[in-house]
Amino acid sequence: MITLCGMSLSNYYNKVKIVLLEKGVPFTEEVVRTGSKVDAVLDATPLGKIPFIKVDGQTLCESQVIVDFLEARFPERPLLPADALAAAKVRELCTFMELYIELVGRELYAQAYFGGKVDDSTQERVRKTLERNLPAFKRLARFAPYAAGDSFTLADASAFATLPTVGNATRAIYGVDLIAAAGIDWKPYLKMLGERASLQRVNADRKRDTEAMAALAAAAAKAAAPGG
Ligand SMILES: N[C@@H](CCC(=O)N[C@@H](CS)C(=O)NCC(=O)O)C(=O)O
């Protein structure tokens, strides 16, 4: 049995979870927060990043490595084409989204999602980079109707992890969704993906955990308040 470790609030965690669900691989989940100092966690994921999996008495980190492993170990419901070049084209999209969109946009998350501040020069640099990278992604992606063509693949799991998170972050910071502004109409695409049972489960679990965290934070704030 595979154990998926991390949190449902993480887009990379959800990318792996979608792949497990799409492939019908049995798994359990274990909550592990980012930035752990626990030795056993750092042995599994030395930078404290999530997700990682436990499998066959070993561990594996890095979401793309994990989904590639799942594809190789559980080929029955494939999420890559059988043809080697076609499969590489799907991975090309996954790599492109991670390196040139997600990792760039991630610099905005502290302010967009976590109440922090991203300095103006970083905001400006990220905007310039995204305005260069997004049209490049548009050239490569197909959305016909799936990211890599006519069937659901690993690229759609990557797109789920990338497009809403970065699109919404840019809207929060710049007042404009840079992904949509680049002509990538990701909302109807995500809505179409959202009809799949795998995404419904992932979205429901994330909603449940987000609400539970908000309730905990509210209870802690109440207890800390004078007379609380
Ligand atoms: N390249 C990694 C990225 C994972 C990642 O950055 N996860 C975030 C949560 S969404 C995290 O752990 N952030 C904490 C950190 O970077 O220290 C992967 O694909 O698994």
Secondary-structure map with pairings?
Elements: E1 2-6, H1 11-23, E2 27-31, H2 39-44, E3 52-55, E4 58-61, H3 63-73, H4 84-105, H5 109-114, H6 120-140, H7 154-174, H8 178-181, H9 186-193, H10 197-224
Parallel strand pairs: 1-2
Antiparallel strand pairs: 1-3, 3-4
Helix pairs in contact: 1-3, 1-7, 1-10, 4-6, 4-7, 7-9
Bound molecules: glutathione.
Key words describing this protein structure:
4-stranded mixed sheet; alpha+beta; single chain; 228 residues; binds glutathione
Verbal overview:
The protein is α+β, with helices and mostly antiparallel strands. The chain has two domains: 2-77, Glutaredoxin; 84-197, Glutathione S-transferase Yfyf (Class Pi), Chain A, domain 2 (Up-down Bundle), CATH 1.20.1050. Helix content is 61%, strand content 8%. The chain is built from ten helices and four strands. The chain has helices spanning 11-23, 39-44, 63-73, 84-105, 109-114, 120-140, 154-174, 178-181, 186-193, 197-224; strands at 2-6, 27-31, 52-55, 58-61. A four-stranded mixed β-sheet has the order 2-1-3-4, with helices on one face. Helix 1 (11-23) links the parallel strand 1 (2-6) and strand 2 (27-31). Helix 1 packs parallel to helix 3 and helix 4 (84-105) runs parallel beside helix 7. The chain is globular. The model has no long low-confidence stretch (mean pLDDT 97). Glutathione binds at residues 10-12, 34-35, 47-50, 62-64.
